[in-house]
C-alpha cells in the first residue's frame, strides 16, 4: 500500500505542474501532506516534519546557494565570464570552437547554475559562431552540454551538494568535487561530438541570431587571473580542506583549512576578492550583484527546500524499511545499488523536471540503506552521488526550465530542441553512469 501511495504522490507532482498548472512548491507540499495522511503518520506531527525537512536542507546548503548565485552575477557584471571564455578559446584555438565551448561550460558550470551560465554566455555563442564560421546550434549545444555536465556532478551547485549532505558526506565535498570532475569528462567530449554531428542544421527561429552583439571592450575586461579567481578559489579551498583530513595533515592545518575550505567561508572569500574586479564604484556594483544574485536564487531555494520537505515525509514512512528489507533479502551488490540509484533519479528527473529535486528525493530514499549495504567510506558514498547525478540528467524536456533556456536564448525551435538538447542530456546521463561504474570497479 505504501508503494502505491508514494507512486500516486509522484504522479500528482507531475500532473500538478503540467496539467493543473500549479507552482511546483504547491505540488510538492500537497504531495508531502497526502503521503503523510494516507501512510498513517501522526497528524499532529505532520506539519512539524515538513517544516523540519525544509529547514534542515536549507541549513546545509541555503547560504551556499545564495552566495553561488551572487558569484554568478559577479562573473556576469564584471565581464569575468567573458574573459574566462576568451582565454580558453585562445588556448584551444579557433579550429576547435565546439570543444572550447564545452570546456568553458564545464568550468563556469561548477559554481554557477547551468541556466545562469548559459544566459551569461549566450552572447559569446553568437560571437564564436560568427568568428569561426560554425553553426550557432553546434556552438550553443556544446556550451549547454558542458554546463550541464558539471552542474549535475560537481559541487558547489545545489544538486550534488545537497545529495552529499543527505548521504552524510558534507564534510568530504572535496572528494565529491574531484570524482565529479573525473565523471564529467566523458560527458564533455560527448557534448562536443554530438553537437558537431547533430546540431549543425537546427532550425533557428531568429534570423538575426548570429549578429555579433555589443560587449565590453577588451580594455574593460578584468585580467585573466582575476577573472578566474571567483571560480578557482572556492574549488581550491574546499578541495584542500577535504584532502587535509584524508592525508592526515597536522591538526592545526586541518582546523584552519577546514575553516577556510568550508563552502560558506570559501564563497565569502571569493566574493570579497571579487571587489577587485570592479576598478570603479566597486561597492555600488557589488551591491547590484548581490541584488541580482539573491533575486535569481529565490525560486531555486524554495524548490530545493520543498524537495527536502517531501523527502522528510518519505523518511518517516515505512517505505525505506520495505526497500531496505527487499534489498538486503535479495543480497544486493554495490553495483546493483548504483543502478537502482541511477534509475530512481532518472525517473524523478524525467517526471518532474528539476535535477536538484530529483537528487534530493533519491538520496533521501537511499540514505538509510547505505551503511547496511557496505557503503561507508567517503569515496564509496561519493560514487552513489555520481550515480544519482547521472540519473538526474535523464532527460531535460518541456517540464524543465533548462530546456527553455537553451531553446529561447539560442533561437532553436522546440522541435529541434527535443531532437538535440533532450537527446544529449539522456546520452550524457548514460555516459556519466558508465564512468561511475568503471570507477566503482576500480575504487569500490
From TrEMBL:
What is the protein's given name? GntP family permease
Cellular compartments per GO CC: plasma membrane
GO MF annotation: an example? gluconate transmembrane transporter activity
Membrane spanning stretches: 26-45, 57-75, 99-124, 174-195, 227-247, 253-275, 296-314, 326-348, 369-395, 423-443
> Keyword annotations for this protein?
Membrane, Transmembrane, Transmembrane helix
Taxonomy of origin reads: Bacteria, Pseudomonadati, Bacteroidota, Cytophagia, Cytophagales
Q: Which InterPro entries match?
A: Glcn_transporter
The species this protein was found in: Dyadobacter pollutisoli
Q: Does this entry carry the keyword Transmembrane helix?
A: yes
Amino acid at each position: 500500500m505504501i508503494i502505491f501511495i508514494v507512486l500516486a504522490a509522484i504522479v500528482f507532482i507531475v500532473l500538478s505542474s503540467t496539467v493543473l498548472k500549479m507552482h511546483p512548491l504547491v505540488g510538492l507540499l500537497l504531495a508531502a501532506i497526502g503521503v503523510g495522511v494516507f501512510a498513517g503518520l501522526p497528524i499532529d506531527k505532520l506539519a512539524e516534519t515538513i517544516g523540519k525537512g525544509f529547514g534542515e536542507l536549507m541549513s546545509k546548503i541555503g547560504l551556499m546557494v545564495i552566495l553561488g548565485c551572487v558569484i554568478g552575477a559577479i562573473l556576469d557584471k564584471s565581464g569575468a565570464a567573458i574573459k574566462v571564455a576568451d582565454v580558453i578559446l585562445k588556448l584551444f584555438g579557433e579550429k576547435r570552437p565546439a570543444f572550447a565551448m564545452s570546456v568553458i561550460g564545464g568550468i563556469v558550470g561548477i559554481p554557477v547554475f547551468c541556466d545562469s551560465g548559459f544566459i551569461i554566455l549566450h552572447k559569446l555563442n553568437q560571437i564564436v559562431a560568427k568568428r569561426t564560421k560554425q553553426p550557432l546550434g553546434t556552438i550553443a549545444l556544446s556550451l549547454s552540454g558542458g554546463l550541464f555536465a558539471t552542474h549535475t556532478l560537481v559541487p558547489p551547485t545545489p544538486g550534488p551538494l545537497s545529495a552529499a549532505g543527505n548521504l552524510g558526506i558534507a564534510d568530504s565535498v572535496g572528494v565529491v568535487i574531484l570524482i565529479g570532475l573525473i565523471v564529467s569528462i566523458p560527458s564533455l567530449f560527448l557534448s562536443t561530438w554530438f553537437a558537431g554531428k547533430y546540431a549543425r542544421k537546427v532550425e533557428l527561429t531568429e534570423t538575426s541570431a548570429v549578429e555579433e552583439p555589443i560587449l565590453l571592450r577588451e580594455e574593460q575586461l578584468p585580467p585573466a587571473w582575476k577573472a578566474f579567481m571567483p571560480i578557482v578559489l572556492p574549488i581550491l579551498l574546499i578541495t584542500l580542506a577535504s584532502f587535509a583530513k584524508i592525508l592526515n595533515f597536522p591538526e592545526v592545518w586541518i582546523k584552519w583549512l577546514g575553516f577556510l575550505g568550508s563552502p560558506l567561508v570559501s564563497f565569502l572569500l571569493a566574493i570579497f576578492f571579487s571587489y577587485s574586479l570592479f576598478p570603479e564604484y566597486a561597492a555600488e556594483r557589488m551591491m547590484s550583484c548581490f541584488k541580482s544574485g539573491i533575486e535569481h536564487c529565490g525560486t531555486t531555494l524554495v524548490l530545493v527546500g520543498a524537495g527536502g520537505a517531501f523527502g522528510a515525509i518519505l523518511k518517516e514512512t515505512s517505505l525505506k524499511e520495505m526497500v531496505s528489507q527487499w534489498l538486503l533479502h535479495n543480497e544486493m551488490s554495490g553495483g546493483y545499488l548504483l543502478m537502482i540509484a541511477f534509475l530512481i533519479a532518472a525517473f524523478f528527473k524525467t517526471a518532474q523536471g528539476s535535477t536538484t529535486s530529483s537528487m534530493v528525493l533519491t538520496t533521501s530514499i537511499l540514505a538509510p540503506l547505505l551503511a547496511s549495504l557496505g557503503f561507508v567510506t567517503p569515496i564509496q558514498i561519493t560514487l552513489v552521488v555520481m550515480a544519482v547525478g547521472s540519473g538526474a540528467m535523464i532527460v531535460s524536456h518541456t517540464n524543465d526550465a533548462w530546456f527553455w533556456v537553451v531553446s529561447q536564448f539560442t533561437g532553436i525551435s522546440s522541435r529541434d530542441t527535443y531532437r538535440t538538447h533532450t537527446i544529449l542530456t539522456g546520452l550524457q546521463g548514460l555516459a556519466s553512469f558508465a564512468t561511475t561504474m568503471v570507477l566503482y570497479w576500480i575504487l569500490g
